[in-house]
Structures are given as structure tokens and as C-alpha cells.
Amino acid sequence: MNMLCRVGQIRRCAASFSQTINQVAAARQKHTLPDLTYDYGALEPHINAEIMQLHHSKHHATYVNNLNITEEKYQEALAKGDVTAQVVLQPALKFNGGGHINHTIFWTNLSPNGGGEPQGELMEAIKRDFGSFQKMKEKMSAATVAVQGSGWGWLGYDKQSGRLHIAACANQDPLQGTTGLIPLLGIDVWEHAYYLQYKNVRPDYVKAIWNVISWENVSERLQTAKK
């Protein structure tokens, strides 16, 4: 009789634990597509409205949706202790999570009031680490245009050395998770970011995007990174 009681208790505990896991998973806040602070046509003529609409509402939205689906599957695998399933899901987490992280930064890096040159501490850091603003632009443009296939060009901050660096990442690999650099400015060179307007002439797109870079946002990111 005692044994039956113990078995019943174990089953009730297991059921309660499983219910708790499911409640935690259900309560997990899902990722959402961030709103833009400007209209899709606000960056014209440098990036047209059609590209912005498709890029934001379709491509970024797909990363967000797939990230939520993958995280749900990952939570299920954790609850079951299924390590194999967890490993299988990690590439999808990296790809869709990186896509969400990268694009969330990208939209804020752009502004209809952008362009020109940075000011203050950011400009001083650029001069210190690259010689001049023009040299930084040339170096970042070259690294970005040279990305093979799809990927991103980045200006990042190395917290350990306190210096700025330029890097390129393939696909949707997130800068910080891949290199340790804190992302300040990213240029998306997946074809969906420019092909409808610039066709296969990536250098023209990269040259044009400097006209809508929000140096105020990049400066704010540098200040946050240094804390």
C-alpha cells in the first residue's frame, strides 16, 4: 500500500513539474518585429520604399517568426532532456536569432536625417583608430563589398582594448556572438537589402547608404558599449 502511495506521489510530482515547464514556456515573452521610427519611403532616393517595406515587413518578420518557433522547440527539448534535439536546433537559433539582432540594430543605424560625419567622442575614436573618417569609410566599405555571398559589414567596439574595429560576418552571424566586438554600425549586404534598386552592383549600394547613416545612433551605441 505504501509503495502504491509513493508511486502515486511520484506521478503527481512529475505531472506538476511538466505543467510548470509548460507554463514557463507559455509565459516566455515572444520576440516581436520592432516598429520603424520613419516611413518606408523616408530613406529615398538612397534606399527605396519597396526595398524597405519588403526588408522590414517580410524578411525581418520571417526571422522573428522562425526564432519564436525555434525557441519553443528548444524549450520542449530542454524539458525532455533531449540533448540531440537541442544541438540540432542551435544552427536555427543562431541564424534566426542573429537575423533578428542584426536587423534590429540596422534599422536604428539608419535615418532620413542621417549622413554627414560623426561628432565628438565617436569622431575622435575614429581618427585615433583609423587615421581619419574617410579612411574608416573606405576600409569599412571595402570589407563590406568583399563579403562573399550574403552577410554584414560592421564597425564594432572592443571593450577589452577600448578601440574600434571593422569586421565582416557571413550570413546572419551576430557580431558580438561571433567576434566579441560590440556592434555599433552594421551594413546589410544580403541581396534583399539592395537588389531591387541596385541590382548586382553592391558597391553603389554601399556608397549610397552612408548618406542615411545615423551617427547620433552610432554615438549612443558607443557610449553604452563603454559603460
TrEMBL record:
Q: Which residues form the Manganese/iron superoxide dismutase C-terminal domain?
A: 118-221
Residues annotated as transmembrane: none
Q: Which GO terms describe its biological process?
A: innate immune response; neutrophil homeostasis; response to cadmium ion; response to methylmercury
Q: Which Pfam families match?
A: Sod_Fe_C, Sod_Fe_N
Name the PROSITE patterns on file.
SOD_MN
Q: Where is the Manganese/iron superoxide dismutase N-terminal domain?
A: 30-111
* Known role: Destroys radicals which are normally produced within the cells and which are toxic to biological systems.
Protein name per its UniProtKB record? Superoxide dismutase
Natural source organism = Seriola lalandi dorsalis
